[in-house]
Amino acid sequence: MLSIKNLQVSVEEKPILKGLNLEVKPGEIHAIMGPNGSGKSTLAHVLSGREGYSVDSGSAHYKGLDLLDMAPEIRAREGMFLAFQYPIEIPGVNNTSFLKKALNEIRKHRGEEELDAIDFLGLIKQQMKLVEMKADLLKRPVNQGFSGGEKKRNEILQMAVLNPTLAILDETDSGLDIDALRIVAGGVNKLRSADNAFVVITHYQRLLDYIVPDFVHVLSDGQIIKSGTKELALELEERGYDWLIEKAESQV
Amino acid sequence: MIDESKKSTSNNDENIAMSDEQQTIQNITDQEYKYGFTTEIEMEEFPLGLNENIVRMISAKKNEPEFMTEWRLRAYRHWLKQTEPKWPKLDYPEVNFDDLYYYAAPKNENAPKSLDEVDPELLATFDKLGVPLEERELLAGVAVDAIIDSVSVATTFKDKLNELGIIFCPMSEAIQDHPDLVKKYLGTVVPYTDNFYATLNSAVFSDGSFVYIPPGVRCPMELSSYFRINAAKTGQFERTLIIADKGSYVSYLEGCTAPMRDENQLHAAIVELIALEDAEIKYSTVQNWYAGNKEGVGGIFNFVTKRGLCSGNNSKISWTQVETGSAITWKYPSCILKGDNSVGEFYSVALTNNYQQADTGTKMIHQGKNTRSLIISKGISAGKSNNAYRGLVKVNSKAENARNYSQCDSLLIGDQCGAHTYPYLEIENPTAQVEHEATTSKVSEDQIFYLNQRGISTEDAVGMIVSGYAREVFQQLPMEFAVEAQALMAVSLEGSVG
């Protein structure tokens, strides 16, 4: 589903990703862990098409399409979703109408009929239960006046409504208390299927207690220096990143 | 205490890297103006230029009583002594007032008695504009007075309104049929000596709408006028007068369009509102005059004087304007709060793109006790345009416990436009409470990307962000016009972001 080969990315001439490789198949959950500044968020941004990054070499294909060649809205319409680390506020734009517009853009792209207001409200009410969100948040402007936890839940609600094929969660756990974390993770688990895949970017192991990954990758200085199963995350929790980084450096 | 503060922000000062957004922005300016057609109708025009004879001809053409002719001539003579104001933050070539036609009308010697007598070409024009002239539109609850160039061509639902004693007719007709009301109120809010353009209008106005709501009557439908400039090189000078008698209510909406022409066209209108005791007037404008092309050629020069007088106690006047058109906009819909406990409101969205310039705002003059005013102004600048808010809050010495709240926001799209805020405060009574808030923001790359990432194109994203920003004002518009106004904003912004 997602195939990244030797991806090298720089920001303002400064190399951030230095030859990253990753294969994600349908039904899989991949966790990407790593210390601050290792390139985790850069990876999320480059995959979703954010401006300001220059791809120096390598490739990224999604469902066989050249991902790096597609406009961000086309990637989204093709079923790619980024849960933002810092969800953006859009003053005055109603949360529900925003989400309805987004869903209908995706449906139009797929050649499906657009949902009318009544059908859409039915869908959104059902999906809201997944994230235990208060109904009045739907009437408010997008993310405006939301608490940190409400913003993250709103991201997961959007994910549930848009039902992506590939979802990238960029530090969705940061700033969440344990209850919110459980709700957010529960939402992800309910959406999980044999046809979709998740890339979960996180700094801490604790999210992975709730979203159990098939693979764990350690990103350091723009490269994946170790891949393993969920046990690797537990080991990292216990020993930190340094031993891995030192080991990787001694191999150079 | 007089406090005159100026705050000017220009996007050029900000070092925000946004090269891609810029590109996008440059692409949005390509949208064609969809009202830019002209209509082939035989027109009657007076000779070029302005002199006493032309003023007399206009008055005679309208078969006006002596008092009107004299009033016009006094205005004309006063106008000769005046010069164009230079204080607005507007840059435009001098208008040659001798090279304009001051009267143009669809050729039809006798005013139409019913829609059947109106030139079918003209009706087709209004059809294209989406003006509901047919009686069946009664269901839509909008009564329309349509004014093309200088003459009012049809007023719908007159009979229905008559039953309630409501007068809604062309100004020229009101002068004939209701001279007492006209004589009593015309020029009482905007005197003919008021300002250069208002004085010119007083001399040469050819038509406009007249509304009178009798005591205690709540007008059951939105009243609406639709202004259209069609003839080339023609100035349009309409004059609207609305009187809400004691305890009455009326909501009025005006819409404006013009053909695309290479030369600039002059529009200098006057609107006077008078609210007596316990009366309320809500006046909404969706202004979409031709703005000129993306190089800044052509477009309407819109110099308008709009003022409301809350003459009675507990009266209320509310202005809502959505200004997206015109090459130049110069207008300050204002309220004189004379009656005790009277309320003035001003809600404005002014959008400028390409080379458009707007200098707009309001004046709230507090004279009565416990008077309140609210100003919500949302400026949106894109392209190479300049958008200025200019507002005065004045509290007279006898206006005990006056309160004002002003919020003036500017939104910048791209880095080649400018937003300017000129708030003036003149407070002569120590019990006054006056608050002013101003913000300047940009459509951020983060916001656009967030919406992109949810499958929404950049153009739609900018439209959504701008509509969200202006929502407080759109909410004030009657429902059907709010939808129209939002669509208009999206069209006006097309090409400003790609």
Main features:
A: alpha/beta, Rossmann fold, six-stranded mixed sheet, 12 strands, B: 13-stranded mixed sheet, ten-stranded mixed sheet, 12 helices, 35% strand, globular
Describe, in plain words, how this protein is organized in 3D.
The complex is a heterodimer of chains A (about 250) and B (about 500). Chain A has about 250 residues and is of the alpha/beta class. Among the domains of chain A are: about 35 residues, no CATH class; about 130 residues, Rossmann fold, CATH 3.40.50.300. In chain A, strand 4 and strand 5 form a beta hairpin. In chain A, helix 4 packs across helix 6 and helix 6 runs parallel beside helix 7. The longest helix of chain A has 15 residues. Chain A is globular and about 60 Å long. With about 500 residues, chain B is an alpha/beta fold. In chain B, the strands form three sheets. In chain B, strands 1, 2, 7, 8, 10, 12, 13, 15, 17, 18, 20, 22 and 24 form a 13-stranded mixed beta sheet that branches. The longest helix of chain B is centred in the N-terminal third of the chain and has 15 residues. Classes of the chains: A alpha/beta (about 250), B alpha/beta (about 500). The interface between A and B is medium-sized, with 33 and 25 residues.
